[in-house]
Amino acid sequence: MAKVKTYNSKYVMVALGNHSVSGLADDSFLTIESLGNGILSKSGCDGEVSRAVDPNSQYSVKVTLLQTSDSNKWLQKMHNLDKDTGDGTFPVMVKDIKGGMLFQADEAWVVKETPRQFGKDTNNREWEIQTGSAQMKDE
């Protein structure tokens, strides 16, 4: 018999430096994507194939927050610090406690300010964070 498995978004923890992210969006709130090209291949005229491993281990981490989240202020503060002094980098850790996924990078930074929308209802804000060398593991 197949085993039943359950995902619970409450068990996905996001830490940016010493800040624990809260106020995550009501639907998709986290996207982690490699910036490298993985394994590249090329085929010669005679059909010989050669491969190259892209050494780029950088990632893009997109965090979507509720408009009212205190984490918006923290990310804006770090972006401002980075623009002013170059000292706005921080480590990133994402852990799915139930699913066993772990993502971590020693250095990351906010790419740019998030667009601001205002209306009758609250809106989400998406922040893009890029990392230096990072690792993604399924535990």
Q: How much of the sequence is in beta strands?
A: 35-45%
The CA-CA distance between the termini, in Å, is 23 Å
Task: Fill in the CATH topology.
Answer: Pnp Oxidase, Chain A
The radius of gyration over CA amounts to: 18 Å
Helix-strand string: EEEEEEHEEEE
Helix amount, in percent?
10-25%
Low-confidence region ranges: none
Mean pLDDT across all amino acids: 94
Judging from the principal axes of the Cα atoms, what is the shape? globular
| Sheet with the most strands, sense and barrel status | 8 strands, antiparallel
CATH level 1 class label: Mainly Beta
How many structural domains can be distinguished in the coordinates? 1
List key phrases describing it.
10 strands, 12% helix, 139 residues, 1 helix, two-stranded antiparallel ribbon, mainly beta, Pnp Oxidase, Chain A, eight-stranded antiparallel β-sheet, single chain
Tell me what the structure shows.
This protein has 139 residues and is mainly beta. It has one domain (9-138): Pnp Oxidase, Chain A, CATH 2.30.110. Helix content is 12%, strand content 43%. The chain has one helix and ten strands; from the N terminus they run ββββββαββββ. The protein has one helix at 70-85; strands at residues 12-16, 19-20, 30-34, 39-43, 49-53, 59-66, 90-96, 101-110, 124-131, 134-138. Strands 1, 2, 3, 6, 7, 8, 9 and 10 form an eight-stranded antiparallel β-sheet that branches. The longest helix has 16 residues, at 70-85. The chain is globular and about 60 Å long. The chain starts with 11 loop residues before the first strand and ends with a strand. The relative contact order is 0.24.
